[in-house]
Amino acid sequence: GENVEQHPSTLSVQEGDSAVIKCTYSDSASNYFPWYKQELGKRPQLIIDIRSNVGEKKDQRIAVTLNKTAKHFSLHITETQPEDSAVYFCAASIMGGYNKLIFGAGTRLAVHP
Amino acid sequence: EAGVTQFPSHSVIEKGQTVTLRCDPISGHDNLYWYRRVMGKEIKFLLHFVKESKQDESGMPNNRFLAERTGGTYSTLKVQPAELEDSGVYFCASSHEVDREQFFGPGTRLTVL
Asked: What confidence score (pLDDT) does residue A104 get?
């Protein structure tokens, strides 16, 4: 069935360093890839997304890259800050279909001051 | 604009009991999704409503789970009888259109003892 693999499961960085989280999807029909951030005790919130017609998208300190051939996509956070500490989930879905999100298992990012 | 709300925030029940979870989507959102995260694993899709109709229920684990959305507004997810493996966090999400961002609720943490 469809699945998304996400690595690493935990990531610890020093404030100011970069963080990279990688995901691989199985369904080649997937064409929409959102990233959600869940802070402790809060709801998952969309932080950035990318569609399959582009290879990269950037929003301030956050960027996402997509390699359709290899079926993987990555989240890059630069100049990390303590408030970036959270669990990050990648997901894949098929726009134009039912749009159910297939999630990775999550990455717990800790940014140490 | 009020976000997606879920009730209760926590529920602790014994095996064999019945529990009903409620989700109120963002007003005007026709699409409503249920997801579940079990024991720190991936967030898994359960089902998708468009208004009051079940569009996709491929993720429902078994017939102990019943979801309804009478009138196309709020939705309920009933688990009867509950089993130990049903423990987890149940998320609800809504979107205005099927190809738009899904907004998540805070989740209901269900513990089955």
From this structure: 96
